[in-house]
Amino acid sequence: MAIVDVCGFSFAYPGDGADRDAAWVLRDVTLSVEEGSFCVLTGPTGCGKTTLLRSLKPELAPVGKRAGRVDVLGIPLVIDGGTADSMAPRDSAALIGYVMQDPDAQIVCDTVWHEIAFGLENIGMPQDAMRRRIAEVAHFLGIEPWMRANTETLSGGQKQLVNLAGVLALRPRLLLLDEPTAQLDPNARRLFLMALERVNRELGITVIMATHAPEDVERMATQRVEMGPIGEPGKRADVERALLTRWGGRRALLNGPQPVPAIETQEVFFRYERTAPWVLRGVDVRVRQGSVHAFVGGNGCGKSTLLKVLSGIAKPQRGRLDNALRASQAMLPQDPKTLFACDSVAEELDEWRQRCGYAKADEAKMLERFGLAAHAAQHPYDLSGGQQQKLAFAKLLLTGARLLLLDEPTKGLDAQACADAVRIVRGLADEGRTVALVTHDLDFAFACADEVSMLFDGEIACTQPTGDFFVENLVYRPNGESRLFGALL
Hints:
The chain is α/β, with parallel strands linked by helices. It has 2 domains: 2-230, P-loop containing nucleotide triphosphate hydrolases (Rossmann fold); 235-325 and 402-488, Rossmann fold (3-Layer(aba) Sandwich). It is built from 17 helices and 21 strands. The chain has helices spanning 49-55, 89-95, 112-122, 127-141, 156-168, 186-201, 236-242, 244-255, 303-311, 345-350, 353-356, 360-369, 385-397, 415-430, 442-448, 466-472, 483-488; strands at 2-13, 23-34, 38-42, 65-72, 75-79, 82-83, 96-99, 174-178, 206-210, 223-226, 234-235, 263-270, 280-287, 292-297, 318-323, 329-332, 403-407, 434-438, 451-456, 459-465, 481-482. The strands form 5 sheets. Strands 16-17-18-14-19-20 form a 6-stranded mixed β-sheet, sandwiched between helices. A 5-stranded antiparallel β-sheet has the order 2-1-4-5-6, covered by helices on one side. The chain has a 5-stranded parallel β-sheet with strand order 7-8-9-3-10, with helices on both faces. The model is unreliable at 16-21 (pLDDT under 50). Residues 4-252, 263-482 form the ABC transporter domain. Keywords: ATP-binding, Nucleotide-binding, Transport. It comes from Slackia equolifaciens. GO terms for molecular function: ATP binding; ATP hydrolysis activity; ATPase-coupled transmembrane transporter activity. Belongs to the ABC transporter superfamily.
């Protein structure tokens, strides 16, 4: 039996408010997913994966023009382009689970326990049954140690696991996931996907998952739907040979006379509350001017917190921080929507023009450079996660800052967009600008970073030139081949 049946479905977001300017994101999509399947959606950034997933969840369905038919769980949601409204909100909440691309967009409560209980409370579940379900999913996902933790102190990857727990507690028949591993470190990603496989095979829950890395779930997927080309893999060895000259230049830079560092810390300690454990403990790090410095490590080790401290957003309780470029810096937060304050993509790029002194022509060039020209009139929140990431990055580049601090800059991007990000970041360093970035994308770090620091338990475990770091690391290694490498060659 098909649990999802989509026939000739098309969707367009409104442009500047006039239907004639609407751009079709989906055209004549036909899809049938049998109950118990593990279906993987692939395609380039902006191809409509998120829009399709949201259209299968009534309360998240986007506003716009529709055509065709959508049935979920045997219930029509869209008939001949019109919304059917035939699934009750309570049924949708309990039967269709959704894990968003942005973990923070789904978190609504102050503690992990209350977050998992939130959906159960909304459907009126008795306390005893609720406690049992919470205990079951917490044990299933191995998150018992966090149950009393404040959700604001969790890393992005930890928040995503909490979101999954809250959905599973409702025992849905259909689970929709939009790039759920985008903010997970390599080990957490494997554990998450193993848990997802058990959800599908042991619990019999149908899974539809959008991803830019279908190879990660190839073993467990029973169905793959390609919504556009995603490129061919390339070998790391070929990329390494292509970058050999540049690496030699980087090593010469690192071994030569050293300018005043862009950022330097000495014995920095930081915690979010006075009685809370230290998030950063005795951090010593130096970010060289004109270099790309990548910070890697497991979820919750303190990477995003360190970036906030380096930028001055968070003040260390102990130790010393020197930032020679503080007067000319810009930061890309983990949630790109934090930078959005306008009603259209074009207005977002124009927002800081008078303050930063760039021209209208520069905005037009950024729209073309990041493939957003066709979306200039669209609301930023109607963009895909990858497109939002591009928009936020473009907005930062227009500032002309000498120091850029980037938190997960490739989150939600396809291989080609990641390759473009590599070229942009390296171009900034070649101009003499400095980039400090946090990433779980080891292929990206391998291709663009000069130095890599690994955080563990709030401390810098090591800092090495990129080539040396990846040769000597047992776990944190780039893939032998990947689509990013293919896009770079």
